[in-house]
User: What shape does this take?
Amino acid sequence: QVQLVESGGGLVQAGGSLKLSCAASGLTFSSAYMGWFRQAPGKEREFVAVISRNGGSTTFEDFVQGRFTISRDNAKNTVHLQMKSLKTEDTAVYYCAADLTVRLGASLPTRRFQYDYWGQGTQVTVSS
Assistant: This one.
């Protein structure tokens, strides 16, 4: 079955960096749009970033403001989220997700309902 396993979360001071990874198995990874979402306590899960199947296109939520980078390695079935200049408001559980829908057009999936599979999440805590 499909498995998405996140890693790399932890505790970091404001202004610091973390790199999250997501290892995928049980799917044709190169056929999947890969996204990152996050959920802070008491809040809805929200979109963070997505990368196209070949890694050539990315989309970020506005709050990222150039601080995060998303990348993928189709040979290793992994997707990464490099986060820099972290803020306390970035504290959340970060989830990796896979969208296997064949999509026409240039828009990348940014909505929760568009994703077929989800990981269990990794906690990111940013202290002041």
